[in-house]
């Protein structure tokens, strides 16, 4: 077993023996490990405070969920952090923060392979919102301020354009013209948030933030819980549409193949509405289609702004990758605008 300098301190903090430690997954944000204690498996994370700069907000939100959801029979596991012997959800060792949570056996998928999985994914995220409907969303703190505020992201794109040192090529100009022309979408966003109920939402509903059972017939756990905070149901449905119903991943440059898969979209809709049937209002159901557009648009705003700033936020593999990601999202947004869905 590889020696880690923090093992002794963490064993003392939790009263556990960290045996058979191994690296888990390929996540880019936190360093994640799996270990066994008393024949049970656990996940240990070395928390990245450079991405989430206010970890106290995350621990506050998680503590609320631990208390509020303690008596509920969830249809899946929600592997929240385990308190250390001092009752804290984070343990500091040197300059690093650590946390431990239960390990959930199953499959973590990078992409949806079939319609049944799309339906299950959407239903699970809706059921998570349902589980939190008795929790006051205003008690939750923003872990990433204004994460899905389309209006603010629009203003940030304008500022990035005004300050950029980039040469305005024809390709860049076409994208700027498209995204800076989305005033009506931003206005519609501002209209929706005036009438939708604030919910406790996951806010990062990619399919790899779920653990499926080994036979892929059910969702075993909802994971990656650091973005849980107040939001709107359309956020969680919209990000599912953006990441599951697109025919290509967000970094694809196969421009003629980037479109919308109507069957996956319908499966997401059916699953989300079924999972949310006990709480979704008429307005919330009506907002879901807009959610797909706004979450695609907001990522286009963010990718293009990052490119204009010189690629300072998103990891890239080549200089124009954020420019191409913005083009990818533009093509998906255009496909969503042209799509007519009748449930």
List keywords for this structure.
343 residues; alpha+beta; 5-stranded antiparallel beta sheet; two-stranded antiparallel ribbon; globular
Written description of the protein model:
This protein is of the alpha+beta class. It is built from 10 helices and 9 strands. The strands form 3 sheets. The protein has a 5-stranded antiparallel β-sheet, with helices on one face. Strand 2 and strand 3 form a beta hairpin. Helix 3 (115-131) runs parallel beside helix 8 and helix 7 runs antiparallel to helix 8. The chain is globular and about 60 Å long. The N and C termini lie far apart (54 Å). The mean pLDDT is 94.
Which strand order does the major sheet show? Answer: 1-2-3-5-4
Radius of gyration from CA coordinates: 21 Å
Structural class designation:
alpha+beta
Number of strands: 9
Number of helices: 10
Question: In terms of per-residue confidence, which ranges show pLDDT below 50 for 5 or more consecutive residues?
Answer: none
What is the string of SSEs from the N terminus onward? HEEEHEEHHHHEEEEHHHH
β-sheet strand percentage: 5-15%
Largest sheet: 5 strands, antiparallel
How far from one another are the termini? 54 Å
Instruction: Name the helicity range.
Output: 40-55%
